[in-house]
Design goal:
The complex is a heterodimer of chains A (312) and B (266).
Chain A (H helix, E strand, L loop, with lengths): L1 H6 L7 H8 L5 H36 L6 H4 L1 H14 L5 H24 L7 H25 L1 H11 L8 H28 L3 H6 L4 H23 L5 H13 L3 H25 L8 H18 L7
Helix pairs in contact in A: 3-9, 3-11, 3-12, 3-13, 5-6, 5-7, 5-8, 5-11, 6-7, 6-9, 6-11, 7-8, 9-11, 12-13, 13-14
Chain B lengths: L6 E10 L2 E10 L5 E5 L6 H8 L7 E6 L2 E2 L5 H5 L2 E4 L11 H7 L13 H13 L15 H14 L4 E5 L7 H16 L3 E5 L3 H7 L2 E6 L2 E6 L1 H4 L2 H8 L1 E7 L6 E8 L5
Parallel strand pairs in B: 3-8, 3-9, 6-7, 7-8
Antiparallel strand pairs in B: 1-2, 1-4, 4-5, 9-10, 11-12
Classes of the chains: A mainly alpha (312), B alpha/beta (266).
Chain lengths: 312, 266
């Protein structure tokens, strides 16, 4: 997928020229396309997929809901709204955008967790998603309202809000790296207790864990990951649903194996979707968010229609 | 195993939000014996067990593990002394018996330490004790109720704790499976474990417990060996029914017969 992402796409460069560039030979034009356009895009796609895949797996395990997904539950929308506000007031530095997106994601994520603790709501996967969709819809409406306020900001927001990893600079990527490293370290810490929490809260306490502390750490981790991914690519929905879904199919019931498998599957899914987004309407491009939605929606329907929701 | 670890509650009061469920309770689990906590629905017996297991923090009083306040000890350290089998268990679909029993080793494992020889020994011992060796690779959702409960007990046994607390371990099981689980519990106490369990069925408690704690409306009304404390008067006070008492000719344990609704004398 990394190779495909480097090889295909806009710009008058043939696959052969790309390979030539990669081994150090090739025209300067090809060199520009590959290193300045496609390489950043590939790196960003890779990071986004990794972050959203892991975040989805964590949220699903913690809420015991196979439909819990940062995009559907409003975590991404929270980050998106925060960034839209930031763009409107003129924030432009990459670091700031990342932090703001993470703060927005944290607010969205906390709301979701609070919602799952409400009696009844957390036990019904579909109702939780409805609650999340309501939150997402509200935030999107608010974002649209912001766009009416300023034409210049509106164009910037509109392009960003559909979800795309094209034309993003490496500066944003570098800005998200520290928080991604922190988030992945946190994943290593919470993985074992999170697996035990699948046995029930009391059983987890019996095994010497602190469920409250674990939930707190996971909320932070998901916010860091989703915030970073949203700062990079806009609010992409369904990636956090599809990636853990595929990973679980191979990994079985243990969340630790699922998390490991999300590491390769997340980037693969996003890069594949991105390559499709470049090729499907060539020479123009379809926004990545549209492609992930086209892939993700049938998966969501399949899970819901399976009759029996897999219990986590 | 020489039992040296002790668990006791000292005048604990347990409340759900503002509603006091159990008031001023003091109990001490006799070492290497099976203690049964009995009483009518809603008497606070599960709450007491959860209090002893540090799941439910008392609003006053202390639970003492080896003389120290259990809530001041690191929870992981407690988990090496005390294993808990909660009443309602969930497991992700497809989790096998082996996976489940391995979870019991978590309190003994450090951060990212690999599975050790000691872990494997404890695992093998637990699997043998609970007789689930032939089920190791079976997903829990394909087992019978009794097998599943034995698998959960195996997890608690793998924790290698001197103390074991069980919340209604046989509540959803038929007679055969109940006997299977109770005999396993007796076997474990025979190996030196101190066991406390909430039991719904007074007859089973009489048969399988060495020590009985009878509760009503959040208060302990009687405590002692079943043969000494179980009487028609106690049964009437606990459950509001009349009965006669004989002794099981085979085991000598108290046996309730002719149980009937109590009719108030006018």
């Amino acid at each position: 997928m990394i190779v495909a992402s480097l090889v295909y796409g806009a710009g008058p460069v043939t696959p052969l020229e790309v390979l030539a560039t990669l081994v150090g030979q090739g025209s300067s034009e090809a060199w520009f396309v590959v290193t300045e356009l496609r390489l950043p895009r590939t790196l960003i796609g890779l990071t986004t997929g990794l972050a959203l895949g892991i975040a989805g797996a964590l949220l699903q395990a913690m809420t015991r809901n196979p439909l819990a997904e940062p995009g559907l539950l409003g975590v991404s929308a929270g980050a998106g709204f925060a960034v839209a506000v930031a763009i409107l007031v003129g924030a432009s530095t990459a670091t700031l955008t990342t932090l703001i997106a993470q703060a927005g994601a944290l607010a969205g994520c906390s709301l979701v967790i609070a919602a799952t603790r409400v009696q009844g709501l957390g036990n019904d996967p579909v109702r939780l998603v409805l609650a999340g969709a309501t939150l997402s819809g509200l935030l999107l409406a608010l974002t649209s309202m912001l766009m009416l306020m300023d034409q210049r900001a509106a164009d910037e927001i509109r392009f960003w809000i559909t979800g795309s990893i094209a034309g993003k600079s490496l500066a944003t990527f570098q800005a998200t790296l520290p928080s991604l490293v922190i988030a992945l370290a946190l994943v290593v810490v919470v993985a074992r207790p999170l697996a035990a929490m699948a046995l029930g809260e009391r059983a987890a306490v019996g095994l010497g864990h602190h469920p409250g502390r674990i939930r707190f750490l996971i909320t932070i981790t998901v916010a860091l990951l989703v915030g970073a991914a949203t700062a990079l690519a806009g609010p992409l929905i369904f990636v956090g649903l599809v990636v853990p879904f595929i990973a679980r199919a191979f990994a079985g019931p243990d969340i630790r194996n699922t998390l490991w498998l999300c590491l390769p599957i997340g980037p693969a899914v996003v890069l594949a979707a991105d390559v499709v987004s470049r090729l499907i309407a060539a020479p123009a491009e379809m926004p990545l968010g549209v492609v992930t939605a086209l892939i993700g929606a049938p998966v969501l329907l399949a899970i819901v229609r399976a009759g029996r929701m897999p219990s986590l | 195993m020489i039992p040296t670890d002790t668990l006791a509650a000292e005048r604990i009061t347990l409340a759900h939000r503002h509603l006091t469920v159990a008031k001023d309770l003091s109990v001490q689990l006799p070492p290497a014996k099976v203690t049964a906590i009995v009483g009518p629905n809603g008497c606070g017996k599960s709450t007491l067990l959860n209090g002893l297991a540090r799941i439910h923090a008392p609003s006053s009083g202390t639970v003492l593990l080896n003389g120290k306040d259990i809530h001041r000890l690191p929870t992981k350290e407690v988990a090496r002394k005390l294993a808990l089998l909660p009443q309602e268990n969930t497991a992700p679909e497809g989790l096998t018996v082996g996976d489940l029993v391995r979870f019991g080793r978590q309190p003994h494992q450090g951060w990212m330490t690999p599975w050790s020889e000691g872990d494997q020994r404890a695992f093998d011992h637990a699997v043998t004790a609970a007789d689930v060796g032939y089920l190791i690779n079976r997903p829990l959702d394909t087992l019978s109720g009794g097998q599943r409960q034995r698998a959960w007990i195996a997890m608690a046994v793998a924790q290698e704790t001197p103390l074991l607390l069980l919340d209604e371990p046989t509540s959803a099981l038929d007679l055969g499976h109940q006997i299977e689980v109770f005999e396993l519990i007796r076997h474990l106490s025979g190996q030196g474990k101190t066991v406390a369990m909430v039991v719904h069925d007074l007859a089973s408690a009489c048969r399988y417990a060495d020590h009985m704690v009878a509760m009503k409306q959040g208060v302990i009304i009687e405590e002692g060996a079943p043969a000494q404390i179980v009487s028609p008067a106690l049964v009437q006070e606990l459950y509001g029914v009349s009965c006669d008492l004989i002794h099981d000719p085979a085991t000598g344990s108290p046996l309730l017969i002719n149980v009937r609704r109590h009719i108030q004398k006018r």
